[in-house]
Structure formats: structure tokens, C-alpha cells
Specification:
Helices cover 38% and strands 21% of the residues. The chain is an alpha/beta fold. It folds into 2 domains: 3-101 and 234-262, Leucine Dehydrogenase, chain A, domain 1 (Rossmann fold); 105-230, 3-Layer(aba) Sandwich (Rossmann fold), CATH 3.40.50. The structure holds NADPH dihydro-nicotinamide-adenine-dinucleotide phosphate.
Length: 267
């Protein structure tokens, strides 16, 4: 009976159990389950090492464990190693722990057009920004610029990943918000980010990693101006579909996962 789950601290807010549960139900995967695994940082390593013996085939990893997940893995994909973080662990025969980062290919899969030859501006320089910058660069974006509230952090990320740091926003094909701005209070978004609502119209596509009940201020401003938008739940679905495929070897039922993540009952 293969078990799956999401390791985080806290993890009560995660939509991953509903999303993966919907995938398991849609495919009729007998005996498979997906659960929340709330684990404080000091217990992360010993908990993960006990999972294969408890019947787990794999797990997603979220805040604050993504770096620790990579550190304890026996082997890892180039993406996880170069990004420096893993969001997907797979437990293989013999007890080996394999680490992957599906945030990067998930970002590319969520875009309405391939990023090759396109320009991109990434807001933020934390963990998710690293995966997004790496993904855009690897996918052949012509220019990737990074802005961050704390400029030194953007400069370090840009130097490490071979892109450029910027002090202000500029028009580009793709805008990705990788800051946590908008998570708790939509009213402060355009005070905390280096652009106003009208400026969202300068992008062909806007991705906001933040998800909440209802649209974020960035998503609604961009949609009002005819910009193609990808919200945080769609990003969650795309990275989750790739994790699901890595564990089960079966093509992920993306629509079922989308409905599960959004709380839409199956039809
Ligand atoms: P980190 O904590 O690693 O980074 C946070 C980033 O947000 C930093 O760049 C930080 O800037 C910036 N920031 C925080 N507060 C402010 C503010 N008031 N004004 C301007 N910038 C601010 O977080 P992650 O990169 O892991 O995640 C970022 C967001 O993306 C979170 O909201 C998270 O929920 C979401 N996310 C969504 C996913 C999904 O599946 N949809 C997956 C992963 C993340 P500074 O360096 O100056 O502190």
C-alpha cells in the first residue's frame, strides 16, 4: 500500500493532499494515499529516514525543509543540485533517497508559451526565485533579471546563476512574482513591489506563485489588462503533476489535480 505525503512545518494550509488525493481517486490507484506530514526542522532527517520503512514511496517537501531534503538525499537530479533545494523525494529499492526539484520544470510547464528567446523579470530572491530563475535560464530565456527588496540577495542569486540583478522593474515577456507579497494582505502589494497596477499590462504573461482564497492583486490587475495569468495554484498543480509521475510512473491526471487543488468537486 504505497503511501505519499507532504513534509512541512507548518503544513496545515497545504492544498497538496487534496490535489494528490484527487489524482489517486481519478486513476483508481488502489491502496495509494497522500497525507500531511507536519515535521519540525530538528526532526526532519530522522522522520524522512523512517518513511520508506513505514511504506512511503515518496514525499513532497515544502517550507522550511527544501534545502535539508537535498542535503540528506543519497542522489539528486542536476536541477535539485544546481538550485540547492529539493521539493520531491522518492524512496527507491534498497532504501535510497532520491531528490528532485519539480518547481523548475513546473514553472516552465505552467507558462502559456515556451520561455526560449523571451525576456523575464523575477521578483524575489528566496528559495522559489532560485528555482524559477534556474528554470528560465535553462529553458533558454534571452534575458532573466532579478529584483529583490534586499538588493544584496538579488545580486548574489544573479551572480550564482549567471543572470542579472536590477534595481527597478522593466517591461518583459514574463513577470514572475516569487516574493510572499500578497499572501496575507492584497492591499499593500503595489507599495511593496516595484510596479503599480497599470505596469502589470507591460508583460505578455504574469505568474504569481502566491496563492490564497481569491485572486491576488497582481493576478487581478494583470487579468484586467488582458495579460495571460498563471496563479499560484496552477503552478502548484504543474509541479505536483511532475512529482506524481515520478512516484507512480503514470501520467498525471492534471485536470483532476486542478479541481482537487481548487476545491472543485469532480464531475
Ligand atoms: P522565501 O522566504 O525564501 O523568500 C521570500 C521572498 O519574499 C524574499 O525575496 C523576500 O525579500 C520577499 N519578501 C517578503 N516580504 C516582502 C515584502 N513585504 N516586500 C517585498 N518583498 C518581500 O520564500 P519562497 O521563495 O519559498 O516563497 C515565496 C512565495 O512563493 C511564498 O508566498 C510561497 O507561499 C510562494 N510559493 C508558492 C508555491 C506554489 O506552489 N504556488 C511554491 C513555492 C512558493 P527579502 O529577501 O528582502 O526578505
Amino acid at each position: 500500500m504505497p503511501r505519499l505525503g507532504v513534509l512541512g512545518w507548518p503544513v496545515a494550509h497545504s492544498r497538496s493532499p487534496a490535489m494528490h488525493g484527487a489524482a489517486i481517486a481519478a486513476l483508481g490507484l488502489e491502496g495509494w494515499t497522500y497525507q500531511r506530514l507536519p515535521v519540525p526542522p530538528e526532526l526532519f532527517d530522522e522522520t524522512v529516514r523512517a518513511l520508506p520503512g513505514a511504506g512511503f514511496a515518496g514525499a513532497n517537501v515544502t517550507i522550511p525543509h527544501k534545502e535539508a531534503a537535498l542535503a540528506l538525499a543519497d542522489d539528486a537530479t542536476d536541477a535539485a543540485r544546481e538550485i540547492g533545494a529539493a521539493n520531491t523525494l522518492s524512496f527507491r529499492s534498497g532504501g535510497t533517497i532520491h531528490a528532485d526539484n519539480t518547481d523548475a520544470p513546473g514553472l516552465v510547464a505552467s507558462l502559456p508559451f515556451p520561455p526560449a528567446g523571451r525576456t523575464a523579470l523575477v521578483l524575489g530572491a528566496g528559495g522559489s526565485a532560485r528555482a524559477v530563475v534556474w528554470a528560465l535560464r535553462e529553458a533558454g530565456a534571452a534575458d532573466v533579471a532579478v529584483w529583490n527588496r534586499s538588493p544584496g540577495r538579488a545580486e548574489r542569486l544573479a551572480a550564482e546563476l549567471g543572470v542579472r540583478a536590477v534595481a527597478a522593474a522593466h517591461p518583459a515577456d514574463i513577470l514572475v512574482n516569487c516574493t510572499s507579497v500578497g499572501l496575507t494582505d492584497v492591499s499593500t502589494t503595489f507599495k511593496e513591489l516595484p510596479l503599480d497596477a497599470d505596469a502589470t499590462g507591460a508583460y505578455a504573461c504574469l505568474v504569481d506563485l502566491v496563492y490564497r482564497d481569491g485572486d491576488t492583486a497582481l493576478i487581478s490587475a494583470a487579468r484586467d489588462r488582458g495579460v495571460a495569468v498563471v496563479d499560484g495554484l496552477e503552478f502548484l498543480v504543474q509541479q505536483g503533476a511532475l512529482s506524481f509521475e515520478a512516484w507512480t510512473g503514470v501520467q498525471a491526471p492534471v485536470n483532476a489535480m486542478r479541481n482537487g487543488a481548487r476545491g472543485t468537486p469532480p464531475r
